[in-house]
Design a protein that fits this description.
mainly alpha; 6 helices; elongated
């Protein structure tokens, strides 16, 4: 089983992506969701989106990141988690481009590509909770 290099590579990349997204959420929660949400909304004030919308979304983002990241780390509901993470990137990119933060949008595009690639290659997700559950069937 360890000779399946594609599965090993997928598991390592899944762990790296999951830890990255989980870390975003975990440390934002640890340092105060309100601080993150307020700072994000303040940074978006120069754009056309309403403050209350960006503030509300800012309160949700860390919890979404925490959940999506944990699911990806575990390899549990992997397709759903990857699709959710990709859709989060779409929403973040919309906000980022609304304030013409092109560097931020470029970073989000890189994350979007990684989510795409991981979703595209999801059949290699054998070293995971999903893989374990499918082998038991």
């Amino acid at each position: 089983m360890l000779r399946d290099h594609k599965a090993v590579a997928y598991a390592i990349m899944r762990l790296a992506l999951g830890m990255n997204i989980f870390g975003h959420g975990f440390f934002r929660i640890l340092s105060g969701v309100g601080n993150f949400a307020s700072g994000m909304a303040q940074g978006m004030d120069k754009g056309p989106l309403p403050h209350v919308l960006t503030l509300s979304f800012g309160y949700c983002i860390p919890w979404i990141e925490l959940t999506v990241g944990l699911l990806i780390i575990l390899g549990l509901f992997t397709r759903f988690a990857l699709a959710s993470g990709a859709l989060l990137m779409v929403a973040l990119t919309f906000g980022t481009t609304s304030v013409q933060n092109w560097n931020g949008a470029g970073t989000q595009l890189m994350y979007s590509f990684i989510f795409f690639a991981m979703l595209w290659l999801v059949e290699a997700n054998t070293f995971s909770v999903d893989g374990l559950l499918s082998r038991r069937k």
